[in-house]
Amino acid sequence: MFTLVRDKRTGTAILGFLYLNGAFICYTLENAVKAIPSGFYSIENSNSPKFGRELPLLFSSKVPSSRGVRIHSGNTYQDSAACVLVGMKRDDAKERIDESKDAEKMVTMLCRSVNRLSIVENF
């Protein structure tokens, strides 16, 4: 199971860490205003009509799959409309993550065999 630990919240961004079975995978960034609630989510890879490629889709009883919340590449809160952005580098001062395309490819591949995500807050 993936665990997303949110550890820093600002007025615009939520930064965190993504783990798989306790091992660090990459950094995360979310839009603080539009972020999905903490809790447990199912993950299913599917083709994203918006992005035109296979991406992990997050859903639960609180967030239906029709809402289209994905894990994908991006650098700042402006790149996320409630989705979880992933990156290999993190800059807290600039509230951004980088090398996100590499992280997206890795997480998408891992989500072919991992189908659960827990989001916890550790602010």
Secondary structure category: mainly beta
Low-confidence runs (pLDDT<50, min 5 residues)? none
Question: How confident overall, as mean pLDDT?
Answer: 97
Main sheet strand line-up: 1-2-3-7-6-5-4-10
Shape: globular
Helices, by number, come to 1
Output the radius of gyration.
Answer: 13 Å
Order of helices and strands: EEEEEEEEEHE
Beta-strand percent range:
over 45%
Biggest beta sheet attributes: 8 strands, mixed, barrel
Instruction: Give the beta-strand count.
Output: 10
Q: Which percent range fits the helix content?
A: under 10%
Distance between the termini: 22 Å
Topology:
Blueprint: E1 2-9, E2 13-20, E3 23-31, E4 39-48, E5 53-59, E6 69-72, E7 84-87, E8 89-91, E9 96-98, H1 100-110, E10 116-121
Parallel strand pairs: 1-10, 6-7
Antiparallel strand pairs: 1-2, 2-3, 3-7, 4-5, 4-10, 5-6, 8-9
Please provide a brief summary of the model.
This protein has 123 residues and is mostly beta strands. The chain is built from 1 helix and 10 strands. It is globular, with a radius of gyration of 13 Å.
Defining key terms:
mainly beta, 1 helix, 123 residues, globular
Can you walk through the features of this model?
This protein is mainly β. It has one helix spanning 100-110, and strands at residues 2-9, 13-20, 23-31, 39-48, 53-59, 69-72, 84-87, 89-91, 96-98, 116-121. The model has no long low-confidence stretch (mean pLDDT 97).
